[in-house]
């Protein structure tokens, strides 16, 4: 690795050649304020001018996020000229900003607020007219408020990089410039897949998930039987919101907090992940045996399902008909569980805590919104971030909570296979563990299926079943999924089974997870995003290793559910409650 010698504030350092001044400074422990620069070059518009510094060899001040270091460069962050310029840049942004920080859901994690504090921004330094505002809350998932947009372009780049569909872009010029879907339409009139990746990277409150905390409050106030389930990836990230090290699994504390928040029962969605494997695995085996449509593709990511309906409407018969785990769980709670406990399902209110903002949309899909005797499977979805907000407002000291177990009830058990659903490749690995057992009559040796592991965008592997080798593939992020889907469309896919997740890396990186904020971690590695995902995925694999049962078919509560209620996987009853349909959608483009 080529290194260069530089000086920052008169102190000599050696850093990698090719880094920007901002990145080099970060590696040396200097946190230069920045806004539009993001994730090691993912977004480098050089537009906000918040990161200005002096550097030898440059004329005037330079934007440190785009200017590369070179041999012998001397960088000054602290000169009065640089300090004043950074402050002016922030003041200019604030002059066109709706500063209702007290009510803004982003306030605790707002990078603009943080930067304004750090540069010592003064009030109303550039008074005048403000750009007309668009406020879009028509989707069940995302709220866009342009009065808080700083035109940094991060969301534009993230949508493009993750999915290659470029829903967001810059419109108009100069004072009237805004960022949004084409022609400033609502998200609802665009082929946005509602993954929430843009929310994750927005430094301000311009893009937010649509909160459903009030719905939960109301249901509790009305005395409903409010139960909650938590998806696998939530436990791997929730602790970050309470200052715990990234990658700390907090299952026990999360359960304890939910109980104290007043939920009548606290369940693990991983139970339903096991149920999904039983249903999906059986569906795959039936397709193989009966010459059904192959490759079969997983269907538990609603972002991916949206993408399929918008962009590959001619290939929908490749999707498994299985509902996603939390929807399956809702259906089981309002039937089997309610019947067993003598609860009127109309009094039951099912809340899902999800790492995914798109699950808010999924629960109101026309196919799912009145699916169980005219009722929705799930009544409210709150993200990991919303759960953290609920815990904080309640005054609970999260880190002091004891570890508690999910409610020991007829839908309690969950296996390691269910835990790993939260990371790319996890559904595939869980399915292979069970499909292998069904066909070979013995457990997969070593249990782990390594080809499905890792955070690469596309992975592939093979597995030999009854003497026949089949190929599998795993993709996350729609840009990667497109490669596999185009092969299918062209009739050239070598695969039998494919797992697709909407968000790059899977649910650990879902659009409702705690924000990855490198400005809050000055001395961290510059590839902080990758590091977060690695640590979160490690947390889930460690939960899998610790589990008593690690294969879905060995889940005792699932076995009882089939024996007492569903009959067998893919039975008529199972189809009625646990499966769904898809429909091609108009793209508006
Ligand atoms: S986006 Fe940030 S600066 Fe703007 S209102 Fe919200 S908290 Fe305040
Ligand atoms: S929600 Fe996803 S698809 Fe929609 S604009 Fe944001 S990043 Fe793009
Ligand atoms: S919506 Fe957010 S991420 Fe997108 S340009 Fe505006 S401030 Fe930046
Ligand atoms: S962070 Fe450098 S110009 Fe915006």
Helicity range of the residues?
25-40%
The major pleated sheet works out as: 5 strands, mixed
Count of separate DSSP helical elements: 19
Give the overall pLDDT as a whole number.
Answer: 95
Overall domain count: 3
CATH class of the largest domain: Alpha Beta
Outline, from the CA principal axes?
globular
The neighbouring-strand order within the major sheet is: 2-1-5-3-4
- Amino-to-carboxy terminus distance: 46 Å
Query: What percentage of the residues does DSSP assign to strands (E)?
Result: 5-15%
Q: How would you portray this structure in words?
A:
The chain has 589 residues and is an alpha/beta fold. It has three domains: 3-94, Ubiquitin-like (UB roll), CATH 3.10.20.740; 131-209, Alpha-Beta Plaits (2-Layer Sandwich), CATH 3.30.70.20; 214-578, Rossmann fold. It is built from 19 helices and 18 strands. The protein has helices spanning 21-27, 80-95, 111-119, 154-163, 197-201, 213-221, 232-235, 251-260, 269-290, 302-311, 325-341, 358-362, 384-394, 416-419, 426-440, 478-489, 528-546, 556-566, 572-578, and strands at residues 3-8, 11-16, 52-55, 61-63, 74-76, 135-136, 142-145, 168-171, 178-181, 207-209, 225-230, 265-268, 296-297, 348-354, 380-383, 458-465, 468-476, 497-501. The chain has a five-stranded mixed sheet, with helices on both faces. Strands 12-11-14-15 form a four-stranded parallel sheet, sandwiched between helices. Helix 4 packs parallel to helix 16. The mean pLDDT is 95. The structure holds iron/sulfur cluster (3 copies) and FE2/S2 (inorganic) cluster. Residues 34-37, 46-51, 63, 65 line the site of FE2/S2 (inorganic) cluster (FES).
